[in-house]
Give the backbone structure.
Amino acid sequence: MQWSSTYPALVFAVIFVCTFLLHLPLLRLPYFWDEAGYYVPAARDLLLTGSLIPHSTVSNAHPPLVMAWLALWWRVVGFAPLVTRTAMLVVAAFSLLGVFRLAERVANTKVAIAATLCTALYPVFFAQSSLAQVDLAAAGLIFWAISAYVEGDLVATGVWFSLAVLAKETAILAPLALAGWEVLGLLAGMLGRKRWLRDLWLDGDDSESRITSTKRIASLLVPALPLALWYAYHYAHTGYVFGNPEFFRYNVAATLSPTRFLLALLMRLWQISGYLHLWVLTLAMLLAMWMLPPERDADCERSRIGVPVQMVFYVVVLTYALAMALIGGAVLARYMLPAVPLVIILSVSTLWRRLRFWRTAVVFVALAFVAAWFWNPPYGFSPEDNLAYRDYVVLHEDGERFLEARYPMARVLTAWPASDEVTRPWLGYITRPMRVVRIEDFSLDEVLSATDFRSNYEVALIFSTKYEPRPALWDRWRAFTETRTALKTRFFGFHRDLPPAAAAQILGGHVVFSEQRQGQWIAVIEMDRIEEGLIPSVGSQLQARFSQPSPR
C-alpha cells in the first residue's frame, strides 16, 4: 500500500505536528540574517503595497512565490515571527511529504518513512524549516516534480517545476538537467548503443518511448516560460534582469574563476556527502554496498531503486553540485537542499536492502543528525545550518536591548545585518529605530577606517560576522593554515573580526557590554574622549599585531 496516495492528508498532518513540536522553542525568535535583510522586508512590502518588487530593500530578482505566501499569512493571521515561522513550517511539512511520496514511489513505505525522518532531522533542513527563506520551498517543489516525472505524469511535472522556479530561480537547474538527460537518451537510442546503456533511461528505445521522451522534454522545458515572464516583469520595473548589479556581481561575475570553481566544487561535494554528520549515513551506505549482499524476504532478494531512477537522482545531484560551485558568492549549504534529500533516499534504500538491522542504523544516523543541531563542527560553517542561528539571535536580542535601554538617542556604528535590526523595530529586536553609521564588517581595515569619522557616532555595536571554530588538529601545520586562509580571503570574502577589546582600543572607547555563545559574540563599545593623535598610534600598533597569521 502506498500511504501517500491512500492517506496523504494524514501523512501531512503527522509530519506537520511533529515538525511544529520540534520547532516550538524557536517560533518566536526575531528574524535572522537574510530573513531580516531581504525576504521579510520584501514580503512586507508586498503586504503593504501589493508590489512584487521590494522597495524597502534592493531587489535581488528572486521570484515572489514564497514572499506572496508569507504576505497571505500575515494578511489573514497577523504580522509576527510566530506567524511567519508557522507558515514556513507548513512549507517544510509539504516538502517532507514530497520526500515521502518520492521515496515511496521509487522504493517502498519503510524506506520512505526512514528517509523522511532523516531528512527532517538533518541539521540544514531542520534549521531552514522555520526560517523565512526560499531554498527549502524550492527544494520541496522539486521533490514533488521529480516524483511526478518518474511516474510519467507530464502535466504535473511541468506544474511542480514551474512552481519551483517561482519559489527560487535556481530551481530551473533540475528540469533543464533532466531535459538534457532525456536528449542524451534519445541520441543513445537513435545511435543504436548497447542495451545496458539504453537501460539507463526511464523508457526503452522503441518508437513509442521516443515519443514519450519528446513529451517529457517538452514538459521539462515548460518551467522556463514562467521564469522568463518573471524576469521580463522585473526588467520592466527595475531596468535590470538578474537582480541589482551588486547582487549579480557578487553571485555570478565575481565567481567565474577556475581555481575558485574547483575549491567551491570540493565544498559542494562535501556538503552533499559529509557535512554536519551526513558522512555517518553515506559512509554506512558505502560499507553496506561494498561488504554485504542483499537481504532476502521470503526467498526474494530485496529490490534496489531502479537504475533509471537512480540516474535521475544522480543527474540532479551532480547538476546542483557543479552549478552551485560555479555561481553563488557564498557557498551556503542551503543551496544544496534540492540534492541532499536525494542522497538520503538512495542511502537509506541501500541500508534497507543490505543491512539486517537497518532500522538500528537509521536510528543511529538520526541521533547523529540531532547531535549536529547543537554541536558546532571544527571547521567553518554558517550559523544558519544548525541551532547556532539561535545563539546569534539571542546574542543580538541581548546586545540591542542593552543598547536601546542605555543609549536610545545615540548614533551607532555597526555593520549589516545589525544595521537593519536597530533601524527596523518590526524585525523584533528593538522597540524604536536608532540612528546608524554603517561599515562593512569588523575587520582591522574597516575598524581603522571608522576612526576617520569618529565624530559621527557615540557608541559601536560590534559582533562576530563569521563563526570562528576552535583550533583543530590541522591548524598545527602553519603552511596549510596560511594557504587555506589566503584562498578563503581571495575567493570567498573571508575576513577575521577584531575581538571587542582590540576594536575598543582602536576606536577609542571601552566595552560596556559583551556576551558570547559557542564561537559567536556581541559587544557594545562606548566612545571615550580621545586626545589628538592617539588613535593613529594605537591603530598602527594593532595593525602590525593583527597582520600576523592566525593559528586558525
The first helix runs from residue 3 to 6. Residues 531-552 have pLDDT under 50 and may be disordered. Residues 388-546 form one domain.
